[in-house]
Specification:
Structural class: alpha/beta
Oligomer: single chain
Strand content: 5-15%
Bound molecules: nicotinamide-adenine-dinucleotide
Number of strands: 14
CATH topology of the largest domain: Rossmann fold
Shape: globular
CATH class of the largest domain: Alpha Beta
Number of helices: 18
């Protein structure tokens, strides 16, 4: 066994034995490269899903972190030791590193001693589909008139169009901040696994125009267990958009295969499993279902398409990917309608609301399209989800939320599995069948065993399953 392999084995053993994070365990192991690590003062702008995980993980790596957000309520919660979002492991990490973390609404406070400013603000689409960078410019504005003597670099973690780096460089120069370097460090995290993917990423991508900035961001990641790829800024910006577009493409591809399976009698589950065994293709993102959602895939695939359109290139492949995804929830409603005749005054149970399991995030969740379509058809919606925070807006204000899946299904004419929550596998389906008015289940995530469900007395419909 090589020395490197032996060290990795020792770290894993320590993780298993102590429950420590991999990084913490790694630092404790003799001979760890973390020992010559230099702590930095990092200001993270934006305490949302990305900023909080970034800040907590940098603190875990040993840096002194100050998180700044414009929402006073978020900062108040964080100062009180509460975590405003659900992300596995995040609360523990914030608590374990509280001596290295502080929170503020005041930009000047955040920047005063910072050596690095990380930009983790939201970049939603504008009416034209371009990314709205107003919050990014607001961060740069907040550096003006503040002492930035120690500030060595501004680092972009927010997802931005290719070319943003050049614009930020010009804005920094105009603001008298020519001494501040710039780097792109896009985030490839997966919500629900964000802490783990930060500390043990497939790769850390760093785009920089100068060696100092690249070296600084590389050094900040000392203790992270993954390869670092340094490249030009525009390349790093494109890697982020292209990666998400390719993942979205895999999902829409398997959903198209599922539709053809439905028409021909093949079973997409068996097909996808065997496709995924091909090492050239891999098993990931080949789950047929209601399509992708969340804050990234829909937004980033549209942003890449708009970016291409702005250059005069119609990105037809991506347009098809997006269209397939928009159709998936609508096809589900049509299939339900085929079974029930009409959805008017039908009671429909939605099992799961978040865009995927393991998160409370409802952004662009397929459930919202499903529920809106059901409302438009005159159905009565009853839903269950362990974590979802849908906000006070339609269609959710017209839906009745229940504490358990069986309660949501009581008296229902049909139930739809919307999110692949593992709890749904543990449901007493015999009790659910007796509680329902009509035992029809549409499994939008192919989560349940069709044979067992049929044996229990359900009419079972999956996606791409005979
Ligand atoms: N959520 C993901 O899974 C994910 C993954 C990869 C990349 N990204 C990208 O990361 C960025 C952030 O995403 P998110 O999901 O964390 O968004 P979010 O909406 O959860 O968080 C953004 C935070 O920034 C704050 N903010 C806005 N303007 C600010 C300012 N001037 N100063 C300080 N804070 C400010 C907001 O109040 C909010 O709390 C986006 O560009 C997104 O595309 C997100």
């Amino acid at each position: 066994m090589t020395a490197d392999k032996a060290r990795k084995k020792a770290i894993r053993a320590r993780v298993a034995a102590t429950g420590d994070s991999y990084t913490r365990a790694r630092r404790k192991i003799a001979g760890s490269p973390g020992r010559d690590f230099q702590p930095r003062r990092v200001a993270v702008f934006g305490a949302g899903y990305i900023g909080l995980v970034t800040g907590a993980c940098f603190a875990e790596l040993g840096h002194q972190v100050i998180l700044r957000d414009v929402q006073p309520e978020k900062i108040r919660m964080l100062q009180a030791g509460e975590v405003p979002i659900f992300e596995p492991g995040l609360g523990d990490l914030l608590a374990a590193n509280k001596d290295r973390l502080s929170f503020t609404v005041d930009a000047a406070d955040a920047v005063r001693d910072a050596e690095v400013v990380y930009v983790c603000v939201d970049t939603p689409p504008t009416a034209s589909g371009d990314a709205d960078l107003s919050r990014v410019w607001a961060v740069i504005d907040s550096l003006k008139g503040v002492s930035t003597d120690r500030l060595a670099a501004l680092v972009m973690k927010s997802t931005v169009p290719v070319g943003t780096g050049e614009r930020v460089r010009a804005a920094l120069d105009d603001a008298g901040l020519a001494h501040v370097g710039y780097a792109a460090n896009p985030e490839f995290t997966s919500e629900g696994r964000a802490v783990r993917t930060f500390l043990r990423p497939d790769r850390v991508v760093i785009g920089a125009a100068d060696e100092e900035s690249a070296g600084l961001v590389t050094a900040l990641h000392g203790g992270v267990d993954g390869p670092v790829e340094v490249m030009r800024i525009a390349d790093a910006e494109m890697v982020k958009l292209a990666s998400n577009a390719l993942l979205a493409t895999k999902i829409s591809f398997i959903n198209e295969i599922a539709t053809v399976c439905e028409a021909t009698g093949a079973d997409v589950e068996a097909v996808a499993k065997a496709i995924g065994m091909d090492s050239r293709l891999g098993p990931h993102f080949l789950r047929a279902g209601l399509g992708y959602g969340g804050s990234c895939f829909p937004k980033d695939s549209r942003a890449l398409r708009v970016m291409a359109s702005n250059t005069g290139h119609p990105f037809q492949l991506l347009s098809a990917v997006i269209e397939v995804n928009e159709l998936q929830p609508r096809r589900a409603i049509q299939r339900l309608k085929n079974e029930l005749g009409t959805l008017k005054r039908r009671r429909i149970a939605l099992l799961g609301m978040t865009f995927k399991a393991g998160t409370d995030d409802m952004r662009e969740a397929p459930s919202t399209v499903v529920a809106s379509r059901l409302l438009a058809e005159g159905a009565d919606i009853h839903c269950w989800d362990p974590l979802a925070r849908p906000g006070e807006a339609e269609p959710w204000t017209s839906a009745t939320r229940h504490a358990s899946p069986v309660q949501a299904m009581t008296g229902a004419d049909a139930a739809m599995v919307i999110t692949e929550w593992p709890q749904l596998r543990q449901v007493d389906w015999t009790a659910a069948r007796h509680a329902m008015r009509n035992p029809l289940i549409f499994d939008g995530r192919n989560l349940l065993d069709p044979k067992k469900m049929r044996a229990t007395g359900f009419t079972y419909i999956g996606v791409g399953r005979p």
